[in-house]
Amino acid sequence: MVYKFIDNFGTFRIDDPYGYNLYFPLTNKDGSLLSSISPNLAGDIKKDNEHFLTVPAGIEDLRSSLLCRREFFIRTGRQTLRLSFPGKHDVVEAGFLYHKVIKSAPGLGIEIVNFIPFDAAVEVMWVKVCNKSRAAVTLSPTSFIPLFGRSEKNLRDHRHVSSLLNRVYLDQFGIRLRPTMVFDERGHRINTDEYFVYGFEGSGKPPEGQFPTLDYFYGRGDILSPDAVEREVVPARQKRTVFDGKEACAAFRFADKRLLPGEETGYFLVMGVEDSPEKAGKAFQRFNTDSKIRKSLEDTKVYWRRYLSTLAFDFNDAVFNNWLLWVTFQPTLRKLFGCSFLPHFDYGKGGRGWRDLWQDALTLLVTESETAGGLIVSNFKGVRIDGSNATIITKDGDFIADRNRISRVWMDHGVWPYLTLREYVHRTGDIRILLEETSYFRDHQLKRARAVDISFVQKDYLLRSSKGEVLRGTILEHVLVQMLAQFFNVGRHNVIRLENADWNDGLDMAPSRGESAAFSFMYAYNLRDLCVLLTKLREITAAVTVPEELGLLLDRLQSPVDYNDFREKQKRLGLYFEAVKNMSGDRRKISLEDLIRDLQEKASHMSAWLREKQWLKEGFFNGYYDDDSLPVEGRIRGDIRMTLPSQVFAIMSGVATDEQTKSIWRSVNKYLKDKRLGCFHLNTDFGSVYMKLGRAYGFSYGDKENGAFFSHMVVMFANALYKRGFVTEGFEVINSLFKMAVGPQAYINPVLPEYFNAEGKGLYAYLTGSASWFVHTLLGEVLGIKFRFGDLVLEPKLLPANFFAQDIRVSLRSAGGTMRFVFTRDKNISRIIGRGTACRAPTVTKVLLGDLPVPVVRGEYLIKRAALLRAGKEGRVIQVNID
């Protein structure tokens, strides 16, 4: 590890932090201001893609650009100290959610703290300077925050022209930048947003003056040697017309300060974006003294610690416990940041993607349980009636078709909503959510992006009937639309079409004839598992209604389709697509018994077809067909090609038999396991660009979607193995991720990154669905804390190697109280894990709810929901003894 934890709250320190190109997120509880910061104080501050206070910063800018740094100069005599420049003995300390750089300079001790208060949309920068020498010292301080004040697209398009719109306004404590217009060639508009930085020294003393433009700050110098610092240029105290139309900055000259030995002082900057001068002023008033800022920093630490206490693990190991805190926090960070607002912003233009909504919710169901049901219902509004969906949700909760305005769909998108929905239903027992209603998404795309409605006029993106009525349907209906459309949406191998990609976004070049068996496995699973929920629903109602048009896809209730004939499936889907172009608004009543029968036949056929047709003689599954309709995996021209997702979802779905799963495990170890690092590659090296499959194979092998150690798929591999009872194998896989993440080669903060490259370096920190799946797997599979329609079912799959000490403690807080678990191992169980399946998984010998033993019901330790809620309110502990 490059870091070490210094408490039990996730706080960590990094000595000599500059060699790793690290960054850290800062935000508040609603994500209304988003920042990144590195040990050299680089990064950016923004509200969204259209409102960057500072210059947008990519991963290479952090170490290469001085213009994206929060800079602070201190002159002492002839010496100038730049606080962003590395020092020999510098240390970073970071926690929830603040970042501190501790520096030492000749005679001085310096700390720079940056944080965003949990309840405010400003970033605070606090520079504390202490005289460590034996003699008095005089400081001459100057702060420097380069301002951008516009959309990220102006970084490349019209950078200079858009700066001509800049207008700066100076007051006693700081600067406001308000461009006259928002520069947009699709339609310029008046700007009302204020980009502000205020500053003060000590208990509230304002700066002596300002340098509001780069021209004025640099003079005849440059960013390395600005005249404002080196030539002691007199700062401005009021606006000058010459400041207009220039690149702006917030550079403040503070009064000279004489510090006696041991004496210290502080300098404070408050930065943000508001939509009026009055709001900017009020934001500063909340933080205009050092006492207010000190209190806000402590309140922010307390807020995030309390937030994280809703789900707490104690494995009796400081490293694992603290690391888990950050991993548990990652789904929240992605909810707040989207995928695009940290320096690895390759996902583009903001917002979260469709998969992100549903996978992050697996953890948010626990950490934000009170709002989970509403969140799920709201998310289903993104479903189209053709079974596809809007791909982006904005911070305001609105759906848009695609962040890049491209007509395309991902074939796996129908899988994730159901997986999250079923988890919610089982966790809460709220089966009635299936009957709640919401709207559908409607835009110009038709027939899963195969056609465009040129007559479509953008209104409110709501699906309407031919009579103009807004159409709503139950959550169950939305799920059926996604599953049934995909069941019939097959290629010539009778496997669901790949379309523009599946989970692996890099498989984006086989839209015509590509097919994805990998996710066909999961559609088969969802169809089968939905029948379990429908059986429970029959306790409430015997029938449901669906759109008349959807009856075309419930073919077992009328005019059955031959499922072995891909052409018949395609034809039926075509009829459905034509029918839903103009929805009638008519509805059909269907008995749940008939609906279950239809879905079971589909699931059974699909599972059997995939199990037989996609199994390879090499001992694993083929998961894909390329755009020439050729199989991607197996022995291809003498070389073995294999992808991990194809095997993961075959196992997870239950389609693969136990014997096939054992064979897959042997093959994965032979072809995908890295012998040096011990983790599992996403695929074998295909050896060349693969234009008939996707961009991934133009990437260097071992990076991103081409053979990296992709955390998301590795943890799902572990989940699948645990689910099927391959416990030692599952442990080996999930443990490989932890070892990679804390290994010396990872060069990352405590986090589970999106992937590790071939050298084992972690990339794309914080914003990844792998964190949610890690917590989901640890809680539900390893610890076996599962729910079935609100009741608790305990199925621990703990091995000796899971125990760092005698017990493991877990607490879950919900509206009903706090559930506390203690897993205690027998003292004679060895912590040494055996090889392969030879190491026996310990078994549960006794479960106590408080002082009362929990009986075994049909071979399971089951605690009914009512008893569970009482225990939570009364603070009783669930004790699980492992032998």
Note down, in words, how this protein is organized.
Helix 7 (318-337) packs across helix 8 (354-367) and helix 15 (644-652) packs parallel to helix 17 (711-723). The chain is α+β, with helices and mostly antiparallel strands and 883 residues long. The chain has 20 helices and 48 strands. It is globular and about 85 Å long. The protein has a ten-stranded antiparallel sheet with strand order 1-2-9-10-11-12-22-18-15-14. Strands 7, 8, 13, 19, 20 and 21 form a six-stranded antiparallel sheet that branches. Strands 23-42-43-48-44-45 form a six-stranded mixed sheet. The two termini are 33 Å apart.
In brief, what are we looking at here?
With 883 residues, the protein is of the alpha+beta class.
- Mean pLDDT reading: 93
Estimate the strand proportion: 15-25%
Strand order of the largest sheet: 1-2-9-10-11-12-22-18-15-14
**Considering DSSP H and I runs of 4 or more, what fraction of the residues is helical?**
25-40%
N-to-C terminal Cα separation, in Å? 33 Å
As residue ranges, the low-confidence spans are: 831-839
Shape: globular
Can you count the beta strands?
48
